[in-house]
Each structure stands twice: as structure tokens, then as C-alpha cells.
Amino acid sequence: xxxxxxxxxxxxxxxxxxxxxxxxxxxxxxxxxxxxxANPPIVLEGSVTIDGSPAPAGTEVKAMYGESVVGxxxxxxxxxxxxxxxxxxxxxxxxxxxxxxVNNIQAQVLDLSDANAGDILEVDLRATSVTSSSPSxxxxxxxxxxxxxxxAVEETTTEVVEDIPIEEEEExxxxxxxxxxxxxxxxxxxEEVSQSADFPTIVGIGSMxxxxxxxxxxxxxxx
Length: 223
Fold this sequence. Notes:
Elements: H1 2-37, E1 42-50, E2 53-54, E3 60-65, E4 68-74, E5 80-81, E6 89-91, E7 97-102, E8 105-111, E9 120-122, E10 125-127, E11 139-143, E12 149-154, H2 166-178, H3 185-222
Parallel strand pairs: 1-9, 1-10
Antiparallel strand pairs: 1-2, 1-5, 1-6, 3-4, 3-7, 7-8, 11-12
């Protein structure tokens, strides 16, 4: 009797274990189906250079949306990123615009508004880390995806001397000409000298006329 009881009890335990195992398998399958139905990420891949040279292994490439990192990977083979299964750069579907950085250097702003979930996009990254400037000239460089690099632009400062307009100069000369000239002492002295020089002449002529009158009177008395 006891033997029959243990056989029946053991059979029930085995059934319970099988039932529990089946429940676990069912739960795992449901989770896998839910994960598979979610939108797969957008994968970015391509070449990557820094200052025109292939980016070395270990270079960090990351995608950011605002201040949040939405995807990151490292370079395994120089000059390439996201080229193997283990270092794929995936970005969750749903972002319209992201910014790609190479070693914290902004390389490109990427528009994903037309991309679909699961798409693989080839994006070549060009990063520039060297900039130079001097007090007299300023060089500006910019970089971006697609292999485009803007040439350096030099800005020079030219000193311009403002010319005085001719009309203002003529008005200034006219105003100077309108100022009456002061009489100089030299002219006054010359006038006084000329007046003093004419005085003896007048006195002499008067004396001669007086003498002539006296002579004429004496002559008249004699006659």
C-alpha cells in the first residue's frame, strides 16, 4: 500500500514539473515574439577620418539627440565604423535629427525623417580637430559628412582713411577769407610818415606866396 502511494505521489510530482517547465517555455516564447515585433533600430555605417587621415582603432563614434546619447560604437578597423556585427552603430527608430560625433568632435548633423525602421544607412564622417588663428588673420574651417570640407577663409582688416569732402574744405577756406584782416602798425607808420613829409612842402609854398604878395605891395607903392 505504501509502495502504491509513493508511486502515485512521484508521478504527480513529475507531472507538476513538466507543467511548470511548459509554462516557462510559453512565457519565453511570448517575450521573444514581443521583442521581434518592436521597431528595429536604424543602422549607420561608413568611413571615418580625422583631419583627413583614417580614424585609428579605438576611435569613439556616437550619435546624440540633444544632450542624450542614443547610439555609440568604437572603430575596430582603421578608417571604418560599424563594419562588423559586434560594433554596429544602431539608432532607435523615431528620431528625426541626430548629431554624430567622432572623439567628441562634431562631424555631421543627420536627418532621419525619411528613414524607416531597420534601414542601413551609409554615412561617411569627416572630423576636423585642428584649428589655427592669429591676431591679424582668422581661419575658419568646417567639416561634415559626405566628404565635403570647406576651405579656410582668411579675413584681413584694412585701415581706411576718411577723406575730407571738397565742399567742406571750400567752406572752410571761404570762412577764413571772410575774416577782416587787422591793420598792421607798419601801414600806420607809413601813413604818418607821408603826412609829415607833405607838411614842409605846404609851409614852403605858403612862405613863397607871402613873399610874393609883399613884393607886389611894395611895387605898387613905388608906382
